Amino acid sequence: MPMQYPIKLNLAQTPTPLQLLSRYSQRFGNTRIWVKRDDLTGAATSGNKIRKLEFTLAEAQQQGCDTLITCGGLQSNHCRSTALLGAQLGLKVHLILRGPMETQSDGNLLLDQISGAKISVYNAKFYAKNLSKLLQQWQQHYAQQQRKAMIIPTGASDGIGVWGYVAAAQELKSDFHQHQLQPQHIVFATGSGGTQAGLTAGNALHDLNCKVWGVNVCDDETYFQHKVKQDLIDWQQRYVDLLPTDFDINSLDINILDGHVGPGYAKAEPEVFATISELAQTEGVILDPVYSGKAFLGMVKEIQHGKLAGAKDIIFIHTGGLFGLYAQKQQLSEHLTTLEMTQG
Ligand SMILES: *Cc1c(COP(=O)(O)O)cnc(C)c1O
C-alpha cells in the first residue's frame, strides 16, 4: 500500500541493519532471533526516540517553535535525544526530569548537560502529581519571553510520534524482502507506548504479517492496552487525510508480553545483567538494563515456554539505551568475569 507521510526531518541514520544472532540463537533449536539495530540510528542521538522526533521536530519547526520542553526520568533516553537534536537544530531545550538527582551525573544526564539543555529536576512524588501543570507553566514562562515552546510528551509518544515506527515498519518490509524472511513476531520494549502504536499500525499498513509484541518495562498490560490505543486514536484524528479510508485502528491487535517488569521501572534483576553480559560476549551487541535488556530476557523466556514458543524467525527491535547502562555500572560489575589487571 503506498503510504503518505506528514513532513519529517532526516535526522536518523537509516535504514538500520537487520542482524541475525546466529550464535545466540543456537540454544533454541529452530528459532532464529534477528535484531533490528535501532541502537545505531545515531551516535549520541541513537535509539528509537529519534525516529519519532524526525516527525515531532518537523512539526515544531513548522509551527515556528524556537523552544522544546519535554520530560522523563533522570536517565531518560528520550530527553537525551531531544536535547542533542534540539542543539543540532538550533532550538532551546528545557528538560523536566524526575528525581532524585544523582550525586554525580552519568550516562544520559551527563549528555543532557553537555548539550546545554536547561534541566529542572523535581522529586518523584511532586513530578508524578504535577507534570502537566509544570509543563504548561514553563511554556507560559517562555511565552512571556516572546519564545514559542512546543511541549513534547513523555517519549514523544503521541499521534505525531506514531509515524516514526509506521515508517520503520516500511523499512522492515524491505529488510524482510532482502533477507527472504517471513518472521512470525516482532518484539521490543514498551515504555511510553509510541513505538508499539507505530509498529502495530505499520505492521497492518505495510502488510508485514507479523504479530507485534511490546514487553512492558513498567505498569501492566491494562495500562498499555489503553495508552497504545490512545496514541493510535490521536494519530488517526490528526491525520485522517493521510490514512487510507478503509483503515480502521479498532481492528488492530495490541499485544503485550506482561510479567517481565521485575522489581520495577529501571530496576533490573541480576538475570537481566547476566543477559546483557552474555549477549555482548556472544554477539557484540550491548543491551541496557531499563528497556532492551529486560525486553530481550522477556522474549527469551517466552520462546522457552510461553507465547513465542515454536516460532521460526523473530525480530527483536533494539531500541537503544546504551547510556543508561553507565548509570547502573555498579549492578553490572558483578557479571563481568573477564577483567584482569596486571601491574607492571
Ligand atoms: C523509550 C524507550 C523504549 C520504549 O519506547 P516507547 O515508545 O516509549 O514505548 C524502549 N527502549 C529504549 C531504549 C527507550 O529509550
Structural account:
- It is globular, with a radius of gyration of 20 Å.
- The termini are far apart.
- The protein is 41% helix and 15% strand.
- The protein has a six-stranded mixed beta sheet with strand order 1-2-10-7-8-9, with helices on both faces. A four-stranded parallel beta sheet has the order 5-4-3-6, sandwiched between helices.
- The protein is built from eleven helices and ten strands.
- The longest helix is centred in the middle third of the chain and has 21 residues, at 124-144.
- It has 344 residues and is α/β, with parallel strands linked by helices.
- Helix 3 links the parallel strand 4 and strand 5 (118-122).
- The protein has helices at 49-62, 77-89, 107-114, 124-144, 162-179, 194-205, 221-238, 270-283, 292-305, 322-326, 329-333; strands at residues 18-20, 32-36, 67-73, 92-98, 118-122, 149-151, 185-190, 211-216, 255-257, 313-317.
- The chain binds pyridoxal-5'-phosphate (PLP).
- Pyridoxal-5'-phosphate binds at residues 47-49, 77-78, 155, 157, 189-196, 288, 291-292, 319-321.
Question: What's the layout of helices and strands?
Answer:
Elements: E1 18-20, E2 32-36, H1 49-62, E3 67-73, H2 77-89, E4 92-98, H3 107-114, E5 118-122, H4 124-144, E6 149-151, H5 162-179, E7 185-190, H6 194-205, E8 211-216, H7 221-238, E9 255-257, H8 270-283, H9 292-305, E10 313-317, H10 322-326, H11 329-333
Parallel strand pairs: 2-10, 3-4, 3-6, 4-5, 7-8, 7-10, 8-9
Antiparallel strand pairs: 1-2
Helix pairs in contact: 1-2, 1-5, 2-3, 5-6, 6-7, 8-9
